[in-house]
Write a structure and sequence with these properties.
- By secondary structure, this protein is α/β, with parallel strands linked by helices.
- Helix content is 32%, strand content 21%.
- It has seven helices and nine strands.
- Helix 1 crosses helix 2.
- The longest helix has 18 residues.
Length: 241
């Protein structure tokens, strides 16, 4: 019988640092999954784990939502990511991007710097798409039940986005099916776990994780980490309506 496993962000960060750099000298981590699954929080906590390991050197987190030119740019933003971020980092130079303002419906003038460091995290729908996989040190796919994801998105952005959101959900379903993103991911994450754990330090890996045969396993907690993973009194992530 397969069971979900509680693993430490710190353990995953260590394994990424021990892995090969494939984007020039940078280890590229992609955190992918459908809207409302918990990708943003996962990427933030993973970046915090890297910072704790290296004494404050927090890797940049580029969120693809900041690169979209509105709702219709769901998957076609990638050349912008390449030009502004991936190309310069691949060459060992710092990148910079202009963040899209969803309120003003335009890109802001002020550039957001992206240093060419040991690790770069890209988070968002299609971040782990097939063309990017040869340069990924790690790909993560986060998911949660569709009803809960809709609940989260509407709570975050407001009920007025519902028509666009439903179109977005249809687009991401089509993309994930064609791209086989989940099947290719190194780590499958439960974005709505029922297992008690400390969510700031640990995440729940879904059963049925699959990895390409040419990659070694990453992200497995040691026995000690798993023993510490369920402190008393800690609750899992739950949707509060």
């Amino acid at each position: 019988m397969t069971v979900a496993v509680i693993e430490a962000y710190a353990g995953l960060a260590r394994r990424v640092l021990a892995g090969p750099a494939r984007l020039g000298r940078t280890r590229l981590v992609a955190v992918d999954g459908p809207s409302g699954a918990g990708k943003s929080l996962y990427a933030t906590r993973l970046a915090d784990a890297f910072a704790a390991l290296s004494g404050g050197d927090r890797p940049p987190v580029v969120r693809t939502d900041d690169l979209l030119d509105g709702w219709d740019d769901q998957l076609t933003f990638w050349p912008r990511l390449e030009e502004w971020v991936l190309d310069p980092v691949r060459a060992g130079r710092p990148g910079a991007y202009r963040r899209y303002s969803w309120a003003r419906r335009c890109f802001l003038d002020r550039p957001v710097p992206v240093p060419a460091g040991p690790v770069l995290i890209v988070e968002g729908v299609s971040a782990a798409r097939a063309p990017a996989r040869p340069e990924l040190t790690l790909s993560v796919f986060v998911t949660a039940p569709a009803e809960l994801r809709l609940c989260r998105a509407l709570a975050r952005d407001g009920a007025e986005i519902l028509p666009e959101l439903r179109r977005w959900h249809a687009g991401e379903r089509t993309h994930f099916a064609a791209d086989r993103t989940e099947a290719a991911a190194d780590v499958l994450v439960d974005g709505a776990p029922a297992l008690p754990h400390d969510p700031d330090r640990y995440y729940v890996r879904r059963p049925g994780e699959r990895r390409p045969t040419h990659q070694r396993p990453v992200g497995h907690a040691t026995g000690r980490e798993q023993a510490r993973a369920v402190p008393p009194g800690k609750a899992g992530i739950r949707c509060r309506s």
